[in-house]
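User: Hey, quick favor. My workstation is busy. Could you predict this chain's structure for me?
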Amino acid sequence: MEDSKQIKALLFSYFRFKRQFLGVVSEIQLLKDIDDIDDFIAFKENEIIGVEIKVSRSDFLADFKNKRKHKKHLTPNSLYPLNKFYFCVPQQLSDFAEDFLSKHYPFYGLLVVRANEIFVKRSAKRLRDKQDIFSNISLRDKLILRMSSELSNLRSEILDKENK
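Assistant: No problem, here it is.
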């Protein structure tokens, strides 16, 4: 069974190399007034895609309990800056997640991990029109700062391992 770190690594590769997104980041809080941290964000000049990673049924269902994010912010034309939103789950959770999303969250998409690859099982519907995210300087800077921090931390981890 895949864990969230493995899935996150696969998402980095999928969005950066297969889908050709400009940047990919993880664990970022997009808006100050929303205390939820997005697991994964992929962005390019006119689109931001959010992905929430879930590895079990209970983990998946817990994400919907008392979360303003799903009730208020991930709806068409809300102020939340995402153009599309996906859940990413292991293969064994995919049928359950697809059924749940179809019934309760028709705008959400579903990505599935199978044999160490990411597949689109359900396409996300557009939450807002494409926008030039680079015209929003604070959002652009936040994404780029997070991306460079992740790269720096990764390099430091590699150096630490080599020096041991």
